[in-house]
Amino acid sequence: MHIVHISSEYSSLCKVGGLADVVFSLSKSQAALGHKVTVIIPLYRPLLDSVTYHPLIHFEVQENTSIYNATAFKILQNNVEVILLDLPHPKQYFSGRPIYGDEHEYAKFMYFTKACLSFLHIEHPSGFDVLHAHDWMTSLVFPLLQGEFHTYDEKIKKTVLTIHNLLYQGRISKQILEHLGGIPSSVLNHPFVSDPWDPQLVNLLKSGIEYADCVTVVSPSYAKEILSPPASFGLEESLGRNKDKIRGILNGIDLDEWNFEKDPLIPFHISYKDPTSKIEEIKQRCKESLAKTFSLHIPPSTPLFCVVTRLTEQKGLDLILKSLDYVVDQGGAFILLGSMIDEGWKGAFQQIKEKYIYHPKVFISYEFNEPLSHLTFASSDFIIIPSQFEPCGLTQMIACRYGTIPIVRKTGGLQDTVHDINDESIPKHQRNGFTFFPYDWAELQKNIQRALDYYHDGSRDLLLKNALDSDFSWNESTKEYIQLYQA
Ligand code: ADP
């Protein structure tokens, strides 16, 4: 099969969150099964400096009455053909701003999505098997395949949309799309694309839910949750009408990248076959190395808790702040690695950073720092993930791979991947963490205390072993995607 993914993020080249990990590792895993896999991403200008690319073809993209030149570059990674579209534009859409949040955020991804189809149409005129779009950033393909590219649509056997987070829907003004061109007014004004709150706006994710052949979300529990409010975020009608084509397929993680045996970003390595006592010893050495790097003083037998996340409302920010204070009060250590702080929370996170700036057992960083994330996973004893909702979540799976025990709120993919040590409905060997359901500080506090008691109790074997043994590979989920493509 020839599978084409189109995405705004791709690990190793441009990452903001889990979307990058998933597109990278899913495509790699599909290629490993022998499929021809292409991933198309924008060539964000700073990338030009970091890698050597080979131009594949020059092509044109039409925006309104203007036609702009574009170039497709190609690299091969893990048998995946990665196509980077260099899209010079008078508004310098891809010239080094942050990937999201700049003034042209909508216009640039609409332009990119149209460029993907313009490129594919020229490079693969007789079509291919699967066009797989990810999130609102590339959902415009579906209206475009109803419009300017409708004859090309017949040459694509299956179209798929994966929703990684229903919160972000791409609610955009019709003017942007009218200016771009390629979508007739019959489609632009169709109820399938109109936003449920404001009919003046187009809702890109909704257009994908309506027009894609199949829709997937990133865990089975999230597939159930999104059918009704509040998780449906206003799209319940559209999701309900299309529920037969919606599937929840659990994300995996790339076991080569997140590998405590050979991760080049950490100083000490384990063998997954090591006894737990040896693994604890290696984790302790990683902890000491981290403490040294940041001039901390974390005495032996001090439990280290961490949070590694985008600091957006969804992630349970009030509970994260409270847990930091609580862990420190109880004598524990804490690493908070958080990026993209929501506007309304910047003050509170600044305050807590100032409060602990000289604390010997606390390190807080508000950057996106890939190497530090690896060291944090390897060094910590526990990770706290108290999300309000979580489509899948990757950090609980990554943490387990490094023997860091997750403490999570049972929602979405967290519910599907973390099982409480005392949950008798789950086989003992699959219990890999601490879980709670009510979104409530008292509940989280209770579970942090359980984790502290467990740590000081000294018999950490069971959870450590179960966490390390959790199967978060892509094997089963990749097969599910292939079956979906072939159905
Ligand atoms: P989301 O996609 O909602 O951001 P996920 O848990 O699905 O959350 O994926 C988050 C990914 O981003 C993980 O690979 C995690 O390690 C990484 N990550 C999150 N915040 C940071 C940060 N501040 N620095 C480095 N990596 C981060």
Question: How would you characterize this protein structure?
Answer:
The chain is built from 19 helices and 17 strands. With 487 residues, it is an alpha/beta fold. It has a 9-stranded mixed sheet. The chain has a 6-stranded parallel sheet with strand order 14-13-12-15-16-17, sandwiched between helices. The longest helix is centred in the first third of the chain and has 19 residues. Bound molecules: adenosine-5'-diphosphate.
C-alpha-based Rg, rounded: 23 Å
The mean pLDDT is: 96
**What class would the helix/strand composition place it in?**
alpha/beta
Biggest β-sheet: count, sense, barrel? 9 strands, mixed
Which spans have pLDDT < 50 for at least 5 consecutive residues?
A: none
Count of DSSP strands:
17
Distance between the termini: 13 Å
Q: DSSP strand (E) fraction?
A: 15-25%
Side-by-side strand order of the widest sheet: 3-4-5-2-1-6-7-10-11
> DSSP helix count?
19
Ions, cofactors and other bound molecules: adenosine-5'-diphosphate
Given the C-alpha coordinates, what overall shape results? Answer: globular
**Fraction in helix:** 25-40%
Task: Write the topology of this structure.
Layout: E1 2-6, H1 18-32, E2 36-42, H2 47-50, E3 54-63, E4 66-77, E5 80-86, H3 105-123, E6 128-134, H4 141-146, H5 150-153, E7 156-163, E8 171-173, H6 174-180, H7 185-188, E9 201-203, H8 204-211, E10 214-217, H9 220-225, H10 236-241, E11 246-248, H11 276-293, E12 304-310, H12 317-329, E13 333-339, H13 346-355, E14 362-365, H14 370-379, E15 382-385, H15 395-401, E16 405-409, H16 412-417, E17 434-436, H17 441-457, H18 461-469, H19 475-486
Parallel strand pairs: 1-2, 1-6, 2-5, 6-7, 7-10, 10-11, 12-13, 12-15, 13-14, 15-16, 16-17
Antiparallel strand pairs: 3-4, 4-5, 8-9
Helix pairs in contact: 11-14, 12-17
The structure holds adenosine-5'-diphosphate (ADP).
